[in-house]
Amino acid sequence: MDLRNIAIIAHVDHGKTTLVDELLKQSGAFRDNQAVAERAMDSNDLERERGITILAKATSVEWKSTRINIVDTPGHADFGGEVERILSMVDGVVLLVDAAEGPMPQTKFVTSKALALGLRPIVVLNKVDKPDAEPDRALDECFDLFANLGADEDQLDFPHLYASGRSGWADAELDGPRKDLSALFNLVVNHVPAPRQIKHQGEDFSMLATTLGSDPFLGRILTGRIETGTLKVGATIQALSRHGEKIEQFRVAKIRAFRGLGQQDIDIGEAGDIVSLSGMAKATVADTLCALAIEDPLPAQPIDPPTISVTFGINDSPLAGRDGKKVQSRVIRDRLMKEAESNVAIKITDTPGGEAFEVAGRGELQMGVLIENMRREGFELSISRPQVLTREIDGEVQEPIEEVTIDVDDEYSGAVIEKITGARKGDLAEMKPAGAGKTRIVAHVPSRGLIGYHGEFLTDTRGTGVLNRVFHGWAPHKGTIPGRRAGVLISMEDGDAVAYALWNLEERGKMFVGPQAKVYQGMIIGEHSRENDLEVNPLKGKKLTNVRASGTDDAVRLTPHVNFSLEEAIAYINDDELVEVTPNVIRLRKRHLDPHERKRASRK
């Protein structure tokens, strides 16, 4: 059977996973009466809740005697480590672009990686049946994007289709029959080359491991594309590191190939197919699995370096251990090491003392997803404010810069530009009308300046603005960027918060806790209306007397308190504060200070 390996690239919410659903249905991967969940490829709970793809996943469909392996790539740059590995497995890419929005920053990030690998894209203009769709403008913007990214003539001469993933059709013409996706299937078969073999290594088996999984019965599972030769179940092969060092020799226990949404055991894996192998004990992502006669590893795609770091520590608050079962530092360390093994974009280092771990990654969203997964697994953690990683070149300190693309109503554009180019030290790169009373702003802003900005941005734009960011490059350090201006309200007592006390504290600022919430000394219960921190008593009840008179009893009507999401809490805190994360609760608190330090901090 002929083979084609393709990746689907799209910005967040441009309809990529929905299109894959339709490809699976129309290729006959499901029975007619089979119940299939919407966005079947988003198998992870967090992916379904947030509507984004986090993990790269493969599936396989058959179309007229051709097997097409389809890889669904994440649309967010924070999960770019997944993208860079996965593109080495495919021979072509389908770029899915919303006909109304055009190519967006995350599209640019993944497309630049695909073009650098020499892959020839197919452009699919999705959602052309929406009333605000402008497919011709979106197509022109795609051409401009490819040209700016240094595409060669073959890549610039790309075919394109008009489609509606939700309705399940794709046509070469905008006013086509709009029946099914056969035009897309045929274009993939005709435009994408069959897998090519690396000739100079002969016909011995070789494969580059690109994703790592685990199974309770099979143990470690490595997935990748077979570059050369064939492999049989029971064969003895070896694993080489990217530097050519021999890691281990093992017997292949199982070979599984993607068939529809599931995987199927096969006896022989052939060159070009994407398969999963089990039987290894140490081999991991970016290692070469090959025949014993091969000495040189396959070239592994380099991964962009991490840009931010967060400290994961044990939860040492007075309420530690009440919600979660996994609280010891060694258990946290084992879980983080397991994550670093399967996610090459994350780096873990121990801090002095061994009770906290420095986790470096791509962005706040990637860190937030890791922490959210851990809290659902029963971990309790204390998390520090994200710190941006810098590097030194020729004695000059450089910091990561992000390209921020903002779509905002015209009336709010002034406030947004003032914020990002003022205190946050951004440079305005482009500003143009985006139609329908909106303005598109493109700016290059230091990563430090974007920590904690999203909530402020939503307030400035009354919730109507859309902000997208992607790593742009490195630039000389831009100096001090001011953090949060307001101080916080800190509990001075342990116990359950009282509604009457919180009501009296409302004039001091916004509350982060409600009545009956567990509080303790040093816990942050609100934001002060001034710049200094203030210790308050949220347990102070009303003095009761036996005198009752009309008008002396005020009804306690509390303003709803602020309920932080995990990412909002991490972005909100200052350097001397921590986020306490448990399976059920997110709290903010001050770092533990001795009495002398506390006095000095209160004076400041």
From TrEMBL:
Key words, A-Z: Cytoplasm, GTP-binding, Hydrolase, Nucleotide-binding, Ribosome biogenesis, RNA-binding, rRNA-binding, tRNA-binding
A single GO cellular-component term on record: cytosol
Catalytic activity: GTP + H2O = GDP + phosphate + H(+)
Location of this chain's protein in the cell: Cytoplasm
Matches recorded under Pfam families: BipA_C, EFG_C, GTP_EFTU, GTP_EFTU_D2
EC annotation from Swiss-Prot or TrEMBL: 3.6.5.-
Segments forming domain Tr-type G: 1-196
Main enzyme class: hydrolase
Broad class of the protein's primary localization: cytoplasm
One Gene Ontology molecular-function label: GTP binding
UniProt-listed GO biological process terms: ribosomal large subunit assembly
Subunit structure: Monomer.
Role description: A 50S ribosomal subunit assembly protein with GTPase activity, required for 50S subunit assembly at low temperatures, may also play a role in translation. Binds GTP and analogs. Binds the 70S ribosome between the 30S and 50S subunits, in a similar position as ribosome-bound EF-G; it contacts a number of ribosomal proteins, both rRNAs and the A-site tRNA.
Family: Belongs to the TRAFAC class translation factor GTPase superfamily. Classic translation factor GTPase family. BipA subfamily.
HAMAP family: BipA
Designated name of the protein: Large ribosomal subunit assembly factor BipA
Organism: Poseidonocella sedimentorum
Gene: bipA
